[in-house]
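In response to a reviewer's request, we include the raw inputs and outputs for one of the modeled complexes. The two entities were modeled together in a single run.
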Amino acid sequence: MSTSILEPIGSSVPDSLGHFGPFGGRFVPETLIPALDELSAEYARAQIDPAFLAELSGLNRDYIGRPTPLYFAERLTEELGGGRIYIKREDLCHTGAHKINNAIGQAILARRMGKKRIIAETGAGQHGVATATACARFGLECDVYMGVEDIHRQALNVYRMKLLGARVIPVTSGTQTLKDATSEAIRDWVTNVTTTHYIIGSAVGPHPYPMLVRDLQSVIGRETRAQMLEREGRLPDVVIACVGGGSNAIGIFHPFINDVRVRLIGVEAAGRGIGTGEHCATLTAGRPGVLHGSMSYLLQSEDGQIAPSHSISAGLDYPGVGPEHSFLKESGRAEYVSITDSEALEGFQLLARLEGLLAALESSHAFAHLSKVRGEFAADQIVVVNLSGRGDKDMGTITQELGIVL
Amino acid sequence: MTRLTTRFAALRGRGEKALICYVVAGDPNIDRTVSIIRALDRAGVDAVELGIPFSDPLADGPSIQASSQRSLDNGTRIDDMFEVVRQVRASSGIPIVLMTYFNPTMQYGVERFANACKSSGVDGTIQTDLTPEESEEWVGHSRRCGLDTIFLLAPTSTINRIEVVSKLSTGFVYCVSRTGVTGARADVPTDLPGLVGRVREKTEMPVCVGFGISTPEHVASIGAFADGVVVGSALVNIIAAAGTSESLEADVEQYAASLKQATRRTQ
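The model returned the following structure tokens for the whole complex.
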């Protein structure tokens, strides 16, 4: 093939040490450095290895179900009265979210490195399920760290992981959510680094993870770009995606980075409102700092203690964000806005009623923003929204929030 | 000559090994941290690693995680910790090294943090998650303020990493005894002398070993090939058990003295 499915598209970042401008890098205990070097080296080899690329694209097609459709949302377009709205259907990926794109790619890398054990962190459980799935597919041992709080919120996904042969390890430290599950996964990795590969779930962590996860998720944006050119004969005017750690957003944004005419909008979770302090709108309300191996925007105290975060959506409930998003914010290439819990619920209902699509609460934030700025886009402008995952997992939360007893 | 360098030279002259003890500032409270350090000094401890509590200590095991959380629950701030050092310095010349994750340093302001270290009487720092590649600014300010910069090496470190880390380290080189997080363990890894030997080929600096060391027997066996040992979690456990009871300082002093004794019988 002439262009590799992992070829970075016109990207000058990160540099060889993983820096996206002032962000990214490696801030980890020294014990992990050789493993990060090994992963970087193996990924560099894999990127130009036809066998790896063929296996990845084969699994993308036959196992994940790619390419996912780019769907013209006719009724939503009519309702919002401005902007022709297309939806990238990552909810149709195997396991129900974009997370599998990364998990499969990293599982192949782990096998190439001879690592037989996989660990992962999970919040909502989508990355945990994707990793457990990839491990079942490749016959790898799988341990997933999950905060006790999230285990209660996402009981169904916990059981899915167990059915897939993974062990779910409850995390009782700190706030007992994604942040602490990530810390605990890193502690496990520091301890078992010679036998274990850590499949990090978002475009966060020490180099090379933010780059690796971005590249594996960029299949979303590459497909979108090609599908759009085929359907409309031109690129979209706006691309919108939700941002927690930011893997689905960087995946759909990245192939458009050099198309400066395409507006890129990331939607963060404003929780109960930015002013309440109960949110996870890191880029909107945080400032740069170091957590989980890289420098990026963080929610934190004056002394640099990490602040507890909140979102109705467990998958966005994280006080950090991928370093490349911090870079895109500071460089002005992407815009970041935020949507509250209740706006996200409205976005969820809007999409369900008008298009028959049950979006994950994470993705619902992106649709809520579209609804919030209705009128901002001209009728002939093309807007693509990434539907990063399906909402079945959120039925419990949604009925509870809407006060419905089943 | 920093206080650390002077201390290591004196120990070498006496044929003794260094005992370095780690405590978290603010556990059980800031005032008792001052008296704990004085107790360590009385016990003959050669240097103190004063830990800055952090909300997400990802290189630490359960003991230090819990200690950090107790300290944060007490409302410990970075400036409180510099106050601890100031108070200790009024009556003691024991070398004090701050052990911290990089984010609190960065948020305080790298330059301001270095200045505060210097003015309060801190001798150096260990920035647990600051890799040599990211350390240029911090090392620069440390040199300007005469602070030692201690970096860590691990059993996974390649010869190349040992070289990079040794070049940037001053005061001593800190070898982590095993892959893993901090925490008291039953035994000492058998491959440790090999790691320390590889490090010695690359540096003249004293080489100290930490992580998992808790008994006089551990101290003696590691003292046979290293220049010093670091004891953290086991001491933190003693502090946790004593809480704010009156026996806290005596418990700390007795335990530290038993470890220090073991550094004197290794040669």
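As requested, we also summarize the result in words. The two ends of chain A are 52 Å apart (CA to CA). Residues 119 and 143 of chain A are 5 Å apart (CA to CA).
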